[in-house]
Amino acid sequence: MAPYVVIAPAKVNLFLEVLGRRDDGFHALETVFQTLALHDTVTVDHAPGDGITLHCDDPSLPVDAGNLAWRAAAAWQRLAGLPGRLAITLTKRIPVGAGLGGGSSDAAAVLRGLQRLAPKPLTDAVLAGLASELGSDVPFFLLGGCAHATGRGEVLTALADLPPLPVTVVQPAVGCPTPAVFAALSDVERGPRPARGAAWWSDRRDPAAWLHNRLTAAALRVQPAIAEALAWLAAQHVPLVMTGSGSACLALGHLPDAPPPLRTWRTTLRPRTRLDAAD
Ligand code: C5P
After folding, report:
1. Which one of 109, 169, 206, 220 has the fewest beta carbons within 10 angstroms of its own beta carbon?
2. Mean per-residue pLDDT over the chain, rounded
3. What is the CATH code for 1-279?
């Protein structure tokens, strides 16, 4: 059987609101996810033997159960009951700790690849449950494109694709840990507040008017270097937003390189119809 090559796109949150704290310690969110052309590449293979082997071209990342892609393969194999060895290869392009969902996307790409090579794939419902156990952003990467989400991010409604608009991602030299950002929310930032509902975005097809992230102030308290990225983008007079829990920030349009130590990626929105396109 030939190995499957799966595209694992980065995501941004064009809108992210905190609705309140839940009894399980997580926060109820309302967010609009969007995949980007920027992507990692994941290869999934099935071989004789047993266990899971993970290779990654970024030596700073773990290649065992410390990597979400490894845990995705292990959990999928347990549920699918497929004997043999699963060999996963990650070619990283998405910056780590940036709020671009690289680890979650790699995990979802492993699941998408394994579903294709399995004689008896998991049902959509079992797959969705597994994705949501792996992490709050993983279910979105099974869908891709533009999507509205509530819950922890797993209650998804597909929104109509946006055109492949140009975007610029600017990342400070340092990442930002998600749990610390949620813990740093003030009482006012934490809510509670009501959700707008998916229809709000269906009725207003202007992404520049969507840009909002309630986690920005908390992320700045955790990682003050994010202010440099926000200030540089603000000086370009373009619509901008921080993505996820940071540290990367996004602007609509293509911009020149930001000055070091900021890092710059010019990319485009990736429509759902091109989720697997290798461009
Ligand atoms: O699900 P994920 O692994 O991305 O979450 C990492 C951490 O971020 C959680 O352990 C929690 O502290 C925080 N989080 C949260 N509410 C969410 C998503 C994440 O409090 N909706």
Report:
1. 206
2. 97
3. 3.30.230.10
